[in-house]
């Protein structure tokens, strides 16, 4: 996280210079977004700890990209509803990344706000209390932007917004590929089965492991969310055809993503596509294609 903020402050010093063209400034913002996204992985791990200090560090990591609500939505929303149609951060079969992105970007803060409002209500407090973890996380972003704007001038503010948007695109592309098309089945009592190893995509690529704090061992993370990342295990679970970094870039090109991943999702369910988490607008098309593929020549 130190490297994350050092790169941000140095970049602000460059953006503040009139000698930096808009094109150069935008390119630097994209580079800072990549660095920030790596810091968000550290923030994700810190958000799973039980100590207050480390959770505040998690919010500080996400403040750079105005996404401080993440740890509330992730811990108290995503981990409960993962791999179901009710989870805004579980991508559905047939849902391209650029359709998924607005759904998750709007869904996470709404989910976090509801969770915090319920928590505070149980304690007899208003959701507008300063103890609201969503509000104080957003306040950290406002404070950070204000300090950088005063220190380096208003010229840096558009670039701060650009690097934040790009960092969120990287973060949510990772979320997109982690559960694409996978679905927890309903039990006889109508409840969803517990999250298991079969409800996340994984990869054991060396580069992904080094850069992402073993986030690519995602099934073990969901089954054991409090397990420290160095102890996450490689398990018998759905495997991506390449490392997370490669698959994030592939996710940004939906036709190529579907060509690679849709057959893997269908194969995961033995050809019965009705067992997958299907994007509702694409359901008829996917079912028709499945019937055609299963018909004898």
TrEMBL record:
* Spans traversing the lipid bilayer: 134-153, 159-177
Domain Fatty acid desaturase as annotated: residue spans: 28-241
| Xref: InterPro entries | AlkB/XylM, FA_desaturase_dom
User: Where in or outside the cell?
Assistant: Cell inner membrane
Q: What is its main location?
A: membrane
Q: Give GO terms: molecular function aspect only.
A: metal ion binding; monooxygenase activity
Q: Which family does it belong to?
A: Belongs to the fatty acid desaturase type 1 family. AlkB subfamily.
Recorded hits in PANTHER family, A to Z, give:
ALKANE 1-MONOOXYGENASE 1
Q: What is this protein called?
A: Alkane 1-monooxygenase
């Amino acid at each position: 996280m130190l490297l994350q903020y050092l790169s941000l402050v140095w970049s602000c010093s460059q953006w503040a210079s009139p000698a930096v063209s808009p094109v150069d400034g935008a390119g630097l913002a994209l580079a800072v977004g990549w660095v920030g996204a790596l810091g968000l992985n550290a923030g994700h791990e810190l958000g799973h700890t039980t100590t207050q200090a480390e959770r505040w560090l998690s919010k500080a990591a996400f403040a750079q990209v105005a996404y401080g609500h993440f740890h509330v939505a992730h811990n108290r929303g995503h981990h409960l509803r993962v791999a179901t149609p009710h989870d805004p951060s579980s991508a559905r079969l047939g849902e391209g990344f650029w359709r998924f992105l607005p759904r998750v970007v709007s869904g996470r803060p709404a989910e976090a706000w509801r969770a915090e409002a319920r928590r505070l209500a149980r304690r007899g407090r208003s959701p507008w209390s300063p103890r609201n973890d969503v509000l104080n996380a957003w306040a950290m972003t406002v404070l950070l932007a204000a300090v950088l704007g005063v220190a380096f001038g208003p010229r840096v503010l558009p670039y701060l917004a650009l690097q934040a948007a790009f960092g969120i695109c990287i973060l949510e592309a990772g979320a997109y590929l982690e559960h694409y098309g996978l679905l927890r089945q309903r039990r006889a009592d109508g409840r969803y089965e517990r999250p298991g190893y079969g409800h996340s995509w994984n990869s054991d690529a060396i580069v992904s492991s080094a850069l992402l704090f073993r986030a690519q061992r995602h099934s073990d993370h969901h089954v054991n969310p409090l397990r420290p990342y160095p102890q996450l295990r490689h398990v018998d679970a759905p495997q991506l055809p390449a490392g997370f970094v490669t698959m994030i870039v592939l996710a940004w090109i939906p036709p190529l993503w579907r060509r690679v991943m849709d057959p893997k999702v269908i194969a995961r369910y033995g050809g019965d596509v009705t067992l997958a988490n299907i994007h509702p607008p694409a359901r008829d098309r996917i079912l028709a294609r499945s019937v055609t593929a299963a018909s004898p020549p």
